[in-house]
TrEMBL record:
<protein>
    <submittedName>
        <fullName>Peptide ABC transporter</fullName>
    </submittedName>
</protein>
<dbReference type="GO" id="GO:0005886">
    <property type="term" value="C:plasma membrane"/>
</dbReference>
<feature type="domain" description="ABC transmembrane type-1">
    <location>
        <begin position="98"/>
        <end position="307"/>
    </location>
</feature>
<dbReference type="InterPro" id="IPR035906">
    <property type="entry name" value="MetI-like_sf"/>
</dbReference>
<keyword id="KW-0812">Transmembrane</keyword>
<feature type="transmembrane region" description="Helical">
    <location>
        <begin position="238"/>
        <end position="265"/>
    </location>
</feature>
<dbReference type="InterPro" id="IPR000515">
    <property type="entry name" value="MetI-like"/>
</dbReference>
<feature type="transmembrane region" description="Helical">
    <location>
        <begin position="12"/>
        <end position="30"/>
    </location>
</feature>
<keyword id="KW-1133">Transmembrane helix</keyword>
<feature type="transmembrane region" description="Helical">
    <location>
        <begin position="285"/>
        <end position="310"/>
    </location>
</feature>
<dbReference type="GO" id="GO:0055085">
    <property type="term" value="P:transmembrane transport"/>
</dbReference>
<dbReference type="Pfam" id="PF19300">
    <property type="entry name" value="BPD_transp_1_N"/>
</dbReference>
<feature type="transmembrane region" description="Helical">
    <location>
        <begin position="180"/>
        <end position="200"/>
    </location>
</feature>
<keyword id="KW-0472">Membrane</keyword>
<dbReference type="Pfam" id="PF00528">
    <property type="entry name" value="BPD_transp_1"/>
</dbReference>
<comment type="similarity">
    <text>Belongs to the binding-protein-dependent transport system permease family.</text>
</comment>
<keyword id="KW-1003">Cell membrane</keyword>
Length: 317
């Protein structure tokens, strides 16, 4: 297990380096001069001398390999650069907003697993029955409704009609834990609705596939208790594709919670990325994209290690 973990970690480090290089190249190949954009006011062309001076201050006049070396060196020291607009350290702003987005995604994933996994198991064990049909229809509807529609309805019902919670916003956990959890509940439930449907459908299809395997039929023929078969033989082997799909969706959510954060006024990383793109603040965009990409790589590394725990054959692949 240790050797497998080391191999996968080395591959993950290589991917991080590749991602960092691609982010640097893509941002620098985008048309437009950041210095000229920053100095443009009211649609008038800026003074060329001022543009040249700002390019020197920002280090944009140096050769691309030199800029790349400085960029990689800064990353090794945890330096993601400074905002072009207010010179605020990008790493500090990301460190402030990233935990909020991760907390939102983690809460949504927990809700999705808590509801999707047992309901998918129930539907598979009652395949073709009324419960299976009803749950499958409900899952189809949940996957079809956009998150901004779900979020709007949640705000309308629970905030405006029932007045159980505020319509949105953010309160630090250290200041008021109950209010923090109340404000977290609505956006997390909004994301979890569609994600739970994905977990449900994948769990159902995976368990149905495992139930048809020879070793399950053999256990049934030997008179092993049905509950023991499901717990010890079916669910564990059916979890691998479920984990795969869940990890892919969680990776997508790292940068895809923009609408949810906007609807509920949740100050996370996605809204910060949108603002940085609109302002053409290249250091902020590079820092955010790099952090999201690295988290996606780490998430896949965690999934690979979880595979090895669920299926020992993976360790020798």
């Amino acid at each position: 297990m240790l050797g497998y973990a080391v191999r996968r970690s080395v591959v993950a480090l290589g991917l991080v380096w590749v991602v960092a290089t691609l982010v640097f190249l893509v941002i620098h190949l985008i048309p437009g001069d950041p210095a000229e954009l920053l100095l443009s006011q009211g649609g008038f062309a800026p003074d060329p001398a001022a543009v040249a001076e700002l390019r020197t201050q920002l280090g944009l006049d140096r050769p691309l390999p030199v800029q790349y070396g400085s960029y990689i060196g800064g990353l090794l020291h945890g330096d993601l650069g400074h905002s072009l607009l207010d010179e605020h350290p990008v790493a500090e702003e990301i460190a402030l907003r990233l935990p909020r987005t991760l907390e939102l995604i983690a809460a949504a994933a927990l809700l999705a697993v808590v509801f999707g996994l047992p309901l998918g198991t129930l539907a598979a064990l009652r395949a073709g029955g009324p419960a299976d049909r009803a749950l499958s229809v409900l899952a189809g509807v949940s996957m079809s409704v956009p998150v901004f529609v779900v979020g709007t309805l949640v705000v309308l019902v629970f905030a405006q009609k029932l007045r159980w919670v505020s319509a949105g916003g953010f309160t630090p956990f250290s200041r008021d834990p109950l209010e923090h959890l109340a404000l977290l509940a609505m956006p997390a439930a909004t994301i979890a609705l569609g994600l739970a449907a994905v977990v449900f459908r994948m769990t159902r299809s995976s368990i149905l596939e495992v139930l048809g395997r020879d070793y399950v039929r053999t256990a049934m023929a030997k008179g092993v208790a049905p509950l023991r078969i499901v717990v010890h033989h079916v669910i564990r082997n059916a979890l691998i594709p479920v984990v795969t799909v869940l990890a892919l969706h969680l990776g997508t959510l790292l940068g895809g919670t923009v609408l949810v954060e906007y609807v509920f006024n949740w100050p996370g990383l996605s809204g910060y990325l949108v603002n940085a793109v609109e302002a053409r603040d290249y250091p902020e965009v590079m820092g955010i994209v790099l952090v999201i990409s690295v988290l996606f790589v780490l998430l896949n590394l965690a999934v690979d290690l979880l595979y090895a725990l669920l299926d020992p054959r993976v360790r020798h692949a």
